Automatic annotation (TrEMBL):
SMART domains the record matches: CH
The Calponin-homology (CH) domain, residue ranges: 88-195, 255-362
Comp. bias intervals (Polar residues): 1-14
Gene that this sequence comes from: parvb
Source organism of the structure: Chanos chanos (Milkfish)
Protein name, per record: Beta-parvin
Compositionally biased residues, Basic and acidic residues: 37-47
Gene Ontology MF term list: actin binding
A Pfam family annotated for this UniProt entry: CH
Keyword set, alphabetical order: Actin-binding, Cell adhesion, Cytoplasm, Cytoskeleton, Repeat
Localisation: Cytoplasm, Cytoskeleton; Cytoplasm, Myofibril, Sarcomere, Z line
Homology family: Belongs to the parvin family.
């Protein structure tokens, strides 16, 4: 090997050693930084684990919550409660009820939060239920106009409900902010006060997150809100009628009433060679109710309009609901009972329906 080659080899070897030494130092520095970061992350994780129960989770808070004024408070539905099947069922029942009540207005509600916050639907619903016309603008696009309409509607509602002992769990701001719990509270109260022909799901409760700002710090807590109780208790808010008194205090007279109603219905059903012996069961599929309405009003009900031999629960409900429509066509008020109650062999509901027919057609031949 020549001297030039030897010098070149030595220089290259020294350069590689310097690079290795530099990379080694760099690697050591990076390793130390990585280790420090891991320790720091671990400490932070431990700190968060300790403090987590004291701090609101990101799932609970929305960006606007950080803008709360001192001593202000905000409530919102806990995300887990939003998926509660019973809560969803309650919303569905209320939506169906609203759409049924406002069918003539051609109003269709699909979402309680999005469709009720501006006061338009609430106005129409209250006017329909109460028979009272409110002095408000028909269409309001601005936030101020919407809140003014809500103010008028809720004042009328509260004026009606407060004397009945209702706790007012709603307000203009909460409804306009699309607070679902406040909206549901309001609708349940209206449905119960006006004795809506619906069955509200029993014992529906939700968790509500309450956010408060104290000394610049947000504090949260969870509160359980009971939206519905038992059917018995909810029905207790309604005006009790003769059948409530009869069943509760004079059960011995119940057979007398049942015998009178059986005599009445058989007087007409016998024309079709049909006979009733048990009120609870024989009207549960709706067939006899439909046929009875045809006989009382003296017309033939086309067989394609109902199920002559219903097999499913849905088909039976269809029949009873159809019979209710025939009653309304005949000038009777819509029965307070739900078709589902009759199908489910609810004696009180069946008696109410038949007694309503008896009082209106007892002199019919």
């Amino acid at each position: 090997m020549s001297a030039a080659q030897t010098r070149s080899s030595t220089l290259q070897s020294n350069k590689m050693k310097k690079e290795e030494s530099f990379l080694g130092k760099l690697g050591g520095t990076l390793a130390r930084k990585k280790k420090f970061k891991e320790v720091s992350d671990l400490q932070e994780e431990g700190k968060n684990a300790i403090n987590a129960p004291l701090q609101p989770s990101s799932a609970d808070l929305l960006p606007e919550d950080t803008l709360l004024e001192e001593n202000a408070e905000r409530t919102m539905l806990d995300p887990t409660s939003r998926e509660n099947p019973k809560f969803k069922d309650l919303q569905r029942v209320l939506i169906d009820w609203i759409n049924n009540e406002l069918e003539e207005e051609r109003i269709i509600v699909k979402d309680l939060e999005e469709d009720l916050y501006d006061g338009q639907v609430l106005q129409k619903l209250f006017e329909k239920l109460s028979g009272r016309k409110l002095n408000v603008a028909e269409v309001t696009q601005s936030e101020i106009g919407q809140k003014q309409k809500l103010q008028t509607v809720l004042e009328a509602v509260n004026e009606l409900l407060r004397p009945q002992g209702w706790s007012i769990e709603w307000g203009v701001d909460s409804i306009h902010a699309k607070n679902l719990v406040a909206i549901v509270y309001l609708l349940v109260a209206l449905a119960m006060h006006f004795q809506a022909a619906i069955r509200l799901p029993e014992h529906v409760s939700v968790q509500v997150v309450v956010v408060k700002k104290r000394e610049g710090i947000l504090h949260t807590c969870h509160v359980t809100k009971e939206l519905t109780t038992s059917t018995e208790m909810m029905m207790g808010r309604f005006e009790r009628d003769a059948f409530d008194t009869l069943l509760d205090h004079a059960p011995d007279k119940l057979n007398v009433v049942k015998t009178s109603l059986i005599t009445f219905v058989n007087k007409h059903l016998n024309k079709l060679n049909l006979e009733v012996t048990e009120l609870e069961t024989q009207f549960a599929d709706g067939v006899y109710l439909v046929l009875l309405m045809g006989l009382l009003e003296d017309y033939f009900v086309p067989l394609y309009n109902f199920f002559l031999t219903p097999e499913s629960f849905e088909q039976k409900v269809h029949n009873v609901a159809f019979a209710f429509e025939l009653m309304q066509d005949g000038g009777l008020k819509k029965p307070k009972a739900r078709p589902e109650d009759v199908v489910n062999l609810n004696l009180k509901s069946t008696l109410r329906v038949l007694y309503n027919l008896f009082t209106n057609y007892k002199n019919a031949e």
